[in-house]
Amino acid sequence: MNGDAFVSSYFLNWYWWRELNSTFTTIPISPIIMKDGCSCGTQSDCIDSGGIYYSLNNHEIFAMPGWNIGCSVVETLLYSTFECLYNQTCIDLLLHYATSVYDQFTYGMNISAIDSSIGSRFKTNTMIQILADELFIEEWKINSSYSLFYSQCAPIYCSYKTRKDDYVIYIISKILGLYGGLTVSLRFIIPLITKIIFNIIKRCRNNIIIPNE
Questions:
Q1: pTM confidence score
Q2: Residues 107 and 202 in one domain
Q3: Is residue 161 part of a domain?
């Protein structure tokens, strides 16, 4: 560990060296600095494009598409994509350089690229972080089977509750509300109608024609 951070054994965030037959009890280290100047000594989210390099002069031999290097193995994986696995040329080059570095690798392995024509809701350059968040699931299908659930749980008995509204109280409250509204309305309408009727009767009496003898 360095301070409060872990030092990667793959030299992803810190680089340390020690001379042979050295008597020093402390090992000098220096932080890994990315191409854009981001230092893994002060930041943990530095990302750089990955590939295969000459160890002597750090010259890039092969830039692996979709492969990004972070300050830790986990970040390197999560910030990368499976883009290379969709390209047969990329896979062949990766196997070629892998066998030249590691003798245990067998170049005779037949690895075919993923068919990009197969339908998927994920793109070929989707980060593995997003794939992991989505649990690598293409489509959710919900199939509810209560009978299967019952047989798996094997309960002794089942019970349920239903909510039932009291319609009698509801109807009574509506009638009372309607009655109250009618009462208020009739208090204004009945006197007006009564007054109109009396006026009509009064006019009829005043307009009686008496014939001449």
A1: 0.57
A2: no
A3: no
